[in-house]
Design a protein that fits this description.
The protein is an alpha/beta fold and 213 residues long. The chain is built from seven helices and seven strands, in the order H-H-H-E-H-E-H-E-E-H-E-H-E-E. Helix 3 crosses helix 4. The chain starts with a helix and ends with a strand. The mean pLDDT is 96.
Amino acid sequence: MTLRTLLTSGAEKLGVILSDQQADAFLVYLVELEKWNRKINLTAIRNEQDIVIKHFLDSLSYLNGFVPAPALRLLDMGAGAGFPAVPIKIAHPELGVTMVESVNKKASFLRHIVRTLKLTEIVVVDKRTGELPPSHHLSYDVVTARAFADMKTAVSEGAPFLKPGGLLVLSRGPEETIGEGAALKAGLVIEKRLDLSLPHSNDPRAIWVFRKK
């Protein structure tokens, strides 16, 4: 199976239909990720099929947690090499995206991939999430995080950026959990938990969705 087929068929299983142009963008992303990964540590996953499944498809699985719409604003905390924000943006270019990444080298890669893929309405902020100015508070419809601390920290740090009714979407291992009380303390309610396996693998994931009260 080619990488393109792996990507497009896997995305389709997650309910995401990619155009030829979007699939091309993912393959360029893969090449640039590998190129930069030789110089700086962006990801420990180096096998191309694993990158497609464990990074690209894993990122697209977040789309099971919210409904994309024009003018929707998304904040990605601890964006790293761009997951899940860049795959989500490729699949839904109508979204406005802000990626927060405090490691300068990773932020440089994010700016490079945004330029290379000619993505618009997507910005990179080189700060820790807790250092964002108050202008970011109550400003986003969706907040995402992947491999960002523990769930309790992700919930408490992500909540202030959400508009009332906004959604925090997290992808975690199936063994991780959080109580309703911890969510309520942050001003959120647990909307749903969706258990799934990544396409073309047996890797289990739990998509958690929290709504701002």
